[in-house]
Amino acid sequence: MAIVDSWTSARAARQVLALARKLLSERGQANSLGLAQDLIGRMGALAAPAWPAVFDKLAADFNPEPDAVLRAAQAYADAPGTETLRALTELSEPPRQELFRRLNRAPGGTGTLVRMRRRLLEGLKAHPDWRMVDADLLHLLSSWFNPGFLEMRQVDWNSPAQLLEQIIHHEAVHAIDGWDDLRRRLLPDRRLFAFFHPQLPNEPLIFVEVALLADMPDAIAPLIAKRSEPLPASSYKTAVFYSISNCEPGLRGVSLGNFLIKRVAEHLKRELPRIRQFCTLSPLPGFAAWLQGLSSLDDLPGLKPAQRERAAQALERLRHHSAAALAGPAALEDEALQADLRQLAAVYLIGQTPLPGGDPVARFHLDNGARLERLNPGGDRSAKGLKQSHGMMVNYLYDLDRIEEHHEAFTQGEIATARAVSGLL
Amino acid sequence: MAIVDSWTSARAARQVLALARKLLSERGQANSLGLAQDLIGRMGALAAPAWPAVFDKLAADFNPEPDAVLRAAQAYADAPGTETLRALTELSEPPRQELFRRLNRAPGGTGTLVRMRRRLLEGLKAHPDWRMVDADLLHLLSSWFNPGFLEMRQVDWNSPAQLLEQIIHHEAVHAIDGWDDLRRRLLPDRRLFAFFHPQLPNEPLIFVEVALLADMPDAIAPLIAKRSEPLPASSYKTAVFYSISNCEPGLRGVSLGNFLIKRVAEHLKRELPRIRQFCTLSPLPGFAAWLQGLSSLDDLPGLKPAQRERAAQALERLRHHSAAALAGPAALEDEALQADLRQLAAVYLIGQTPLPGGDPVARFHLDNGARLERLNPGGDRSAKGLKQSHGMMVNYLYDLDRIEEHHEAFTQGEIATARAVSGLL
Amino acid sequence: MAIVDSWTSARAARQVLALARKLLSERGQANSLGLAQDLIGRMGALAAPAWPAVFDKLAADFNPEPDAVLRAAQAYADAPGTETLRALTELSEPPRQELFRRLNRAPGGTGTLVRMRRRLLEGLKAHPDWRMVDADLLHLLSSWFNPGFLEMRQVDWNSPAQLLEQIIHHEAVHAIDGWDDLRRRLLPDRRLFAFFHPQLPNEPLIFVEVALLADMPDAIAPLIAKRSEPLPASSYKTAVFYSISNCEPGLRGVSLGNFLIKRVAEHLKRELPRIRQFCTLSPLPGFAAWLQGLSSLDDLPGLKPAQRERAAQALERLRHHSAAALAGPAALEDEALQADLRQLAAVYLIGQTPLPGGDPVARFHLDNGARLERLNPGGDRSAKGLKQSHGMMVNYLYDLDRIEEHHEAFTQGEIATARAVSGLL
Amino acid sequence: MAIVDSWTSARAARQVLALARKLLSERGQANSLGLAQDLIGRMGALAAPAWPAVFDKLAADFNPEPDAVLRAAQAYADAPGTETLRALTELSEPPRQELFRRLNRAPGGTGTLVRMRRRLLEGLKAHPDWRMVDADLLHLLSSWFNPGFLEMRQVDWNSPAQLLEQIIHHEAVHAIDGWDDLRRRLLPDRRLFAFFHPQLPNEPLIFVEVALLADMPDAIAPLIAKRSEPLPASSYKTAVFYSISNCEPGLRGVSLGNFLIKRVAEHLKRELPRIRQFCTLSPLPGFAAWLQGLSSLDDLPGLKPAQRERAAQALERLRHHSAAALAGPAALEDEALQADLRQLAAVYLIGQTPLPGGDPVARFHLDNGARLERLNPGGDRSAKGLKQSHGMMVNYLYDLDRIEEHHEAFTQGEIATARAVSGLL
User: Fold this and answer.
1) Taking CB atoms and an 8 Å cutoff, what residues of chain C touch D82?
2) N or C, where is chain A less crowded by C-beta within 10 Å?
3) Is C160's CB within 8 Å of A162's CB?
4) Residue-level pLDDT at D1
5) pTM for this model (two decimals)
6) Any chain A CB within 8 A of the CB of B408?
7) What is the tens place of the pLDDT at every residue in B281-320?
8) Interface touch B160/D160, C-beta < 8 Å
């Protein structure tokens, strides 16, 4: 049985590759479309066990010819010019790229390539050479899913049920507990915006959830409470990005969140001129693990001696609590302990080298040009929040007039930090 | 005055280039969007005299580093692998491409690049080195305007007036003489389909006009008559593509017409299952000039001796008529003369090497997989028709089941030809 | 406190009535709109206790003047003609109608009147004189909600969530148990169609649910099973209307269901030419109560002696079972008992005078021109089904070519009945 | 031949009437729809000569029964109550109304009735008894085309060509000279709004053209100049209704213009908060004819002696000019003459009894609550303008806060008049 399956898989993979080679060798475009449609059909029907063979071949066989490239590079170096350059760029581009472009021309091609990359990424660790294939896919998808081509749509209770169902499914930060919970998140003081691509009109690519509040929030629970009373529009002063979720793993590495946040901020500024500030209420997912693994503060060269001294004292005090105790609800009631946690969270965010250590959420917002605004101990009292970050949450502030400046500074290794945080050190 | 202008132009061009370099050097994506928007604004405001300096620099300065490429090619040749390949592809791609991709990310970027290429093409002959810039633009635009991203829409009398106005303006084959003429071409027995890109939703890229008839037509006049009575739907048996027009010179070389014709054919087949055949009624624009310049038939090696003999006799007979006479309406009444013209049109289409000589319309349809079906002397009695082709028109037949086969044959140097035409030789 | 409330109510009612009189007395139309908008606002804010006073006055004060009408009728009888007729129709129409028409002209007017009638109907039994108001409202709403003005829309999983939520809420026949249940009822082999009015674009007025099946069904459970596998489209042969629900009590008496069913049938016939038959699977809600109250068959003059004899035997046998036993699940397993129930159901439907007794569902479909096609004992095994109809369900067949004939017969007191049912007597 | 036609007509009319009687006698609603559809089909095919017979019968045969009405009126007078009222309203309503309501239920019914009334109105003068039919049609159409059911849409250069074509066709005040002229009237400083009914979604019912200007205009030519430069949005201070046209003669008497103007004014106020005033620039169509027929000012009792004296002097001076001279372009250059005309125009508008004499445009705006704001001699120098009104144009001002007050005053016989006009007397 397994042997039969394996035979079938191998044959299906060979057929896909043969068709791919045929599509790539097609000179004109008259047949390309038909061939691409065939290939898309076969790829859609290809079973999981058949894919590794396809990826292996895509990585091994669809590369530039080393000798030809070398000759072209030599010719270009000898006489840089239109013709030598053309030859060079043609020969040095992996033929895979042209194959993917041709697939993308046919109906359903874009979706097929995105789904193919999803599979590829799942096996990437085990097959390092597939990275060559991935580089080409990422290069092309970044071009095709560039924000100029994306459409931002507000999702609300008037949106199609099939779309809302996907939102429920993909919310990755603060899970949505069914339709009633979603409905609350779509009342007027909550907004949800998503990016769509014209080729995948019914599939949200990424979405962000926004709460319209009077003030910058210090805890997540009220924002996602299912039965809270909606705030009247006259009170909206602060727009809080409290959750951002990617829906499509096949687009990993394609920059979307950054553009979505900024486009939403501009949209809300126009619609609600009273909004004074845009900020986040974000988790600090790596904090607990970092703290756990922290033996000393010596390898944090960014701290000044006095800072290091005080942080070491805080760390010392924390050592008296077991890991379980630190991640338990009782810890939230211990004010001194919370103060120590806050101080070490500041160290975690602005004391590491390179900044901001390994925290992906912090890196995302800071690289976007946000400012590290406030630390909120006890901001997330969920089990997950306690376990990953001892309940700590962070506000990052998006000051639309200064995000370029902050981003610039961040690329120079400097974090824009409000005094409320920097003063903790 | 001219000096002042020239100074202003030069300064504006320098500013554009400086911004372009800044955009390209930006590492993260946070600032890219803002920079790209600035650059798009400046490019939109750049006066005509400033562009050549921009194009010169784009051609001269945004190229791969010859030495770096050579080293990367050597490294790749020594040890082909993920890392050496990544280095090679990065270093051998002209940095212009990344610049254009970043522009394309911002609102309005796509349109700006298309309009920039329009300008570039206008000066290409005079500035051969701009071809390097053009190659990169074409490469990227082909990827962004691939048919998978395009939307086909039917244009009819319910379409927005602003769109219909563009159709009137861009019809290149059989000019539309105002709104009443257009209206006739949108009655139920005439159809018009266009491609649109999501980034340019109000600008048709290319459109094709279709007549629904009982039989394959042999003359254009009845198809574009302003006051003709619409045919009842029950009589539709043949769909005739009688005009195809590109609207956007900045997309020259991006393959659109081929895909449009096929998508329209599929659409009509679904909507009107009674349609039995799809064909064109096409001009033969190079015929008169070719005939004029034809001194002998000796350099047409494709002809067999007997064919050459008969064609030479026909040519000889035509020599008795002046060029003016051949392009005059009286010639249309001379049956013997028309027979000679038809024979030589067959030679023009299937006797040249390489096939089909320099006729762009014939090349377009034959490469698409159409069959050369019939020659129609006197099919176009307009002044332009008489002048360019002595009134000759051609039907190319799109047999949807055989277009791949015909295309394949054409790439091998063979033209699919109906006996009605091949028999003329 | 109650006294204060009562004072407030009385004052609010007086204000509404004063405004109503002002609106009615307005001669031109310039001010009508503003007055109507004011009145709509006040009516929307009127608390429940204030309404009876409004309805009382509407019934008492907005009537034709008896003397004036009598004089006009005399004048018309003396000299029938344009002027006497005009005077008569003007004077005999209750001024309420003009009031309601003026309200209906303003934004939100239609909805306000529909909601007002909803309240009025709730109190109609206790206030018989309100029937005069109701007659005028029904007269006008029938004109404004005539099917020519309604839009039929298919509701599916792509419909707005807010609409689907209303569907879940209003399904009156076979309750929808949440979003997953609804989703199953919107898969391709289930359809849902609703009527909308342009003035109330987000409020479904009535909807019908359809199952696409191979054969006429004899039980409801498989049709509303939450996890059933969708049938492939190639198997659709029968369209079954298995549930029809009104959403708006304020439109009671306005004929909607009849038109909806026919429009849906025509729509499905066009979309799915393979559908051979349209039928219902309907409850028999009054059957159990009728049977319970049936002392003898003597007052069913429609039965012939032999029929009466056999029915009486069946009835006699049923007397041996307690009411609880008849409505219990065990009864479903007793074949003889089910046969007796089926026979008496036939008596219930076609033996009463006038036909079909008091069963509203039967009356609805038979008056629509459907044929009584089949009785299905045990078709509804739910507690409600057992209690109301001993589990009996009915198929009514909509033969589109014969519905007029059947309807005609029904108005003459004759029920179109398939032999499978008439043979039971 | 004529005899044959007449026979055919008579038969077709009889068939229509027979079907109408059948539809009306139908008790249930099951067959109504089918019958109504048949009848609509036949009415659509009915030739012009057949209609008078239909209208004659509709006027003669579909009336209330005099005796029955009289008995019902007596019964109602004896005992006013629910049942006697119901009987009265049923018996006194002409059965025509129910017939028309049933027609209106079927697809296409509304359009059929509107077109039928168009025909009816054309023959109304010659057939006074058709007024009974017209009264019923107007009664129902007023209810169905009430503004609450109408949709206001802005028409612009993005609107469907088929709609724009109708606009060109129906503009009745200042003719639109083809597509280019229309295009100018749709540039940003010109607006066009129309009412549509859901049952006739592609047919504008009435439309108004608006110019956005800095100041109240005193001449029409610049507003409708084909090549004028659009005004920048920052200059818009005044919105001028410069043309209002009904598209559907079958809706004569149904109040639409009043509501359209107010809804447009509210829409513009929201969109362009800088707009300070709304006014018209209107013709004075009856002025020249009135002046021509004016023998003395004695029958204008509204004038005070001094006013009469001065007006008589002006009239005397005008007597020195021939009618042709007064309607010629030279008259426009004679300042003294223009002053006299202005004075008499004021007399024409505010000196007649009842106000404002027979001028339909003045009556329309004044009854809407507008104020008579300014007289503009030489405002319309077109041949038609000179002939009908000696070139005089009028501004009526819509002060949204005071239109109710002005309308109220007008119904009391008083015209709201700016001092600039009243001072002329």
Assistant:
1) 128-129, 131-132, 135
2) N
3) no
4) 46
5) 0.90
6) yes
7) 999 999 999 998 888 888 787 788 888 888 999 999 998 8
8) yes
